[in-house]
Design a protein that fits this description.
Blueprint: E1 30-34, H1 42-57, E2 62-66, H2 72-79, E3 83-86, H3 97-105, H4 114-121, H5 123-132, E4 140-144, H6 145-151, H7 153-164, E5 168-172, E6 182-184, H8 190-198, E7 203-208, E8 212-222, E9 225-228, E10 232-235, H9 242-246, E11 252-254, H10 261-277, E12 283-291, E13 296-302, H11 312-320, H12 324-336
Parallel strand pairs: 1-2, 1-3
Antiparallel strand pairs: 4-7, 5-6, 5-7, 8-9, 8-10, 8-12, 10-11, 12-13
Helix pairs in contact: 1-12, 6-7
Pathway: Cell wall biogenesis; peptidoglycan biosynthesis
EC number: 6.3.2.4
Subcellular location: Cytoplasm
């Protein structure tokens, strides 16, 4: 393939490798993949960005990998890419702010718009929306750090255990990659879990831990509407934490998941319904647990799923029989097509 785009590197470029060409001189569409940023998930974003850039180049597209920095707006205005693919994880990448900027600049991009992204980014708000849509999600409470100072930590902790029981999952209301997430099986461990959570945000989501099969179901917008890819089953000793997600050998994955046909249909339907209820676009990933009673309990939904070599969406693509590069190209083509 002949391309003026730079070869993949360990970090996004801050400027194009070659002068921007007028639109009339362009051959293949030019895609800017945004990766990096300054969130706790920067390294994961860089890995996702490199993988997607390589896959898109394999389809003949011109691709430039770019960080989110002071040069970005000038670069976008000068280069005027045909489409932008934000592969930023964590704050700014998933809270809608970068997408707001892309809307202001007038560039099409892959993924959900800023308003729906903000709903999904805030886990308690998205859980409320899922409940309103008739979907199941673990029972929960949301408490800010200031409340523990105002009311005293121990009385609040005791009330949480009485209300929700044990085991519990404590997580920041915003963020991803399981950062600040703790599974609590003993009441005496809850205080430490809250401290670890508050290291990543001012507000904690405390929810009932659900026993069952942990699954991730990716959804892609196709010509006939949202389509669920095969569920990926996650088996991790000690919980699906950051290391389990990104260190090879820490977790066992089954793609497709070891489900009956009826169970596979049920979790696929739940993911598609979540995608639609939250007004998501192009792609999403729903993390859920199929509980012992056969209910799909949605844990959270992601507007910018990871695309690393260990990430769940690429595994689902492989299990579906689709070719990864071709599917990514189809997503880009969808983003290039004006909404009707």
């Amino acid at each position: 393939m002949t391309s003026s785009a730079p070869a993949p590197s360990d970090a996004p470029t801050g400027a194009p490798a070659a002068p921007a060409r007028p639109d009339a001189a362009r051959g293949a569409p030019l895609v800017v993949v945004l990766a990096g940023g300054l969130s706790h998930e920067r390294d994961v974003s860089l890995r996702s960005g490199r993988r997607v850039a390589e896959a898109l180049r394999a389809t003949g597209l011109e691709v430039v990998l770019h960080d989110v920095d002071a040069d970005l707006l000038a670069f976008l205005r000068e280069t005027r890419p045909d489409v932008v693919w934000p592969l930023l994880h964590g704050a700014s990448g998933e809270d809608g702010s970068v997408r707001d900027v892309l809307d202001m600049v007038g560039l099409p991009y892959v993924g959900t718009g800023p308003r729906a992204s903000r709903v999904v980014w805030n886990k308690p708000i998205s859980k409320a929306a899922l409940l309103d849509a008739g979907l199941a999600t673990p029972d929960y409470v949301t408490l800010p750090q200031s409340l523990f100072r105002d009311l005293g930590a121990q009385p609040v902790l005791d009330t949480i255990v009485r209300r929700l029981g044990l085991p519990l999952v404590v997580k920041p209301t915003e963020g991803g990659s399981a950062l600040g997430v703790t599974v609590v099986t003993r009441a005496e461990d809850l205080a430490r879990a809250m401290v670890e959570c508050f290291a990543y945000g001012e507000t904690a989501l405390i929810e009932q831990a659900i026993d069952g099969v942990e699954l991730a179901v990716s959804v892609i917008d196709g010509p006939d509407g949202p389509e669920a890819l095969p569920a990926v089953e996650i088996v991790a000793d000690g919980g699906y934490d950051y290391a389990a997600r990104y260190v090879a050998g820490e977790t066992e994955f089954f793609a497709p998941a070891r489900l009956t046909a009826e169970q596979a249909t049920l979790v696929a339907d739940a993911a598609v319904r979540a995608h639609e209820a939250l007004h998501l676009r192009h792609l999403s990933r729903t993390d859920l647990i199929l509980d012992r009673s056969g209910v799909a309990q949605i844990l959270e939904v992601n507007v910018a799923p990871g695309m690393t070599e260990m990430s769940l969406l690429p595994q689902a693509v492989a299990a579906s029989g689709y070719e990864l590069s071709s599917l990514y190209r189809a997503i880009v083509d969808t983003a290039l097509t004006p909404a009707r």
